[in-house]
């Protein structure tokens, strides 16, 4: 059975989005080191793949914005990428080296492409990190592939399954209880629904959605929340995690309001 790293009934978490992208260079060793030093254990990050099938941490498919290079990550070998430096003097990191370097931290890793799935799976197996990762993707087919390969690893929901949760949440309460059991959940390794406030003008994160997910045994994480008033309102709904670019500021402001959070 998949070990639970997210729970729908505990103290809410703060997850450092891309390691805390507004506080340190995103998806960098500097950001992860700072998060660890500040006591944070939950990191949200992203994975792409090199030309020679090495899973690396970067949000964008291109190097231009953050990695000190230009063009697609997939056009470079790992050796070539390892010589590039970002504006802070750091280099891109492999998934396996980060899992080795931060063994006490839980990484929520978004598999950005189909091509990264197998290298990501291999990196997790090689580092023995199955119990301390949650794998995410917008693409439900990609997630099913990952779940088959790593049935013991926690995952979040893809867009298609989130849409089903939203649809069930809009049903009258009596019907909701009938249909919620058909939603993808813990039996398939799903521990979290990680959702935005809105999608294409439609409200996604509502109290009804939180109740539906909790009834199914699934935690709800909101992204990407940097405003304290919005975070406090979401926590009043029962949201289980706030994914934020400003983890230290969010922790301090919530604590100042008397809201206990887990890091």
Describe the structure.
- The chain has 263 residues and is of the alpha/beta class.
- It is 33% helix and 18% strand.
- The chain has helices spanning 29-37, 78-81, 95-101, 117-127, 140-149, 159-169, 173-179, 207-215, 228-237, 247-256, and strands at 13-17, 42-49, 55-57, 106-111, 133-136, 154-156, 190-195, 198-199, 202-203, 219-222, 241-244.
- The protein has an eight-stranded parallel β-barrel, surrounded by five helices. Strands 8-9 form a two-stranded antiparallel ribbon.
- Helix 1 links the parallel strand 1 (13-17) and strand 2 (42-49).
- Helix 3 runs parallel beside helix 4 and helix 6 packs across helix 8.
- The relative contact order is 0.17.
- The model has no long low-confidence stretch (mean pLDDT 95).
